[in-house]
Amino acid sequence: MPNTPQTLAEAHRLRDFFAAQGAHVITADVLQPADTLLDLYGEDIRARAYLTSDPLRGEMVLRPDFTVPVVQMHMQTHADPARYAYAGKVFRKQENDETRANEYMQAGYEVFDGQNPAAADAEVFAVIADALAGLPVRAATGDIGILTAAVHGLRTSDARKAALLRHIWRPGRFKSLLKRFAGGKVPAARTALLAADDPFANAGPDIGLRSRAEVATRIAALRADAQEPPISGDEVLLIDAILDLRETMPNVLSHLRDIAVDMPAISAAVARMDARVAALAARGVDVENLDFEGSYGRSSLEYYDGFVFGFYATARPDLPPVATGGRYDALTARLGEGRAVPAVGGVIRPDLALGIK
Which residues belong to the annotated binding site for L-histidine? Predict the structure, then answer.
């Protein structure tokens, strides 16, 4: 029931519930400039969003979510702290799953507050949980910040770290890159290309969007990378250990403290998680039974960089998450032209919430 009157009424109820927590109700245009999303996510966004061309406004996109326009709105106001609530339709392509709606309602709650990030994380999670009170849902949590800290701490080149960070949200690509950087097999075609004295010999005419100079720069980068020593097997095992974590929050914290002994780069991220667990407990959340997954949140839109969470229908594992959310500090820095504001938010799909009552 993605667009029924009942769904609309539930979306407005949720929006008003969020407003009662002190959030300012806002709206966002359905048509958004596409250049912002293209800058953030590259051409990959074309596979997930509906783009169109306007003769006056240029390339536009049907709003795929609210977070980007809300951040843009907030960064213009310079308000701090601030809380926002909203409800409206979002539009996303579902090319590989005909059962999932490509147009549906969202109601959301966003907090911009750098005074106590752990408390803000706990606030958003608890508010979303309260809005879903009485529904048969289970919560899952994760922390992208721990994995990014681990990548930053690897004893390897900045170029390799950048490549891994770029593909954190593409688990398959991340795994294959990590394997190759650890000394895994390089494709024969690439080996032959890098060994050639003149890689453009017999290449034929230039085709595609990249110039010959850009291709040459890429080949030079690949040659430089081929000279790098492999990432150590011990470091790969530590990354794998983080990704394989799947227990309750307190048990995961214990494991992460052990991992931090051998990988000190994650110590600050683990301390932030420790503070978050305490803040969640202070909010009345049963952290002793709250699930944490080391790889959770890696297939979402690519702006989450810290705490991530989702709520799922316990009796309907076939459904998308009823609610999702997380921290996106880095997004505010990019949209704020370097002026970062700690931010965390969550959204609920009212159609799914109604469907599992």
Answer: 65-67, 92, 106, 110, 298, 303-304
Residue type, 114: G
Instruction: Dump pLDDT digits (tens) for 154-198.
Output: 999 999 999 999 899 889 999 999 998 998 666 676 666 666 667
Domain boundaries, the chain: 138-170+232-313, 185-202+209-229
The number of beta carbons lying within 10 Å of the beta carbon of residue 67 is 23
Q: What is the DSSP string of 24-87?
A: EE----SEEEHHHHHHHHGGGGGGTS-EEEETTTEEEEE-S-SHHHHHHHHHHHT-SSEEEEEE
Q: Centre a 10 Å sphere on the Cβ of residue 31 and count the other Cβ atoms it contains.
A: 13
- Max CA pair span of the chain: 68
As a CATH number, domain 138-170+232-313 is 3.30.930.10
Alpha carbons 59 and 224: distance in angstroms, whole number: 37
- Binding positions: 65-67, 92, 106, 110, 298, 303-304
Which residues, at least 6 apart from 50, have a Cβ–Cβ distance to it below 8 Å?
A: 61, 62, 64, 91, 93
134 φ/ψ sector (left φ>0, alpha ψ -120 to 50, else beta): left
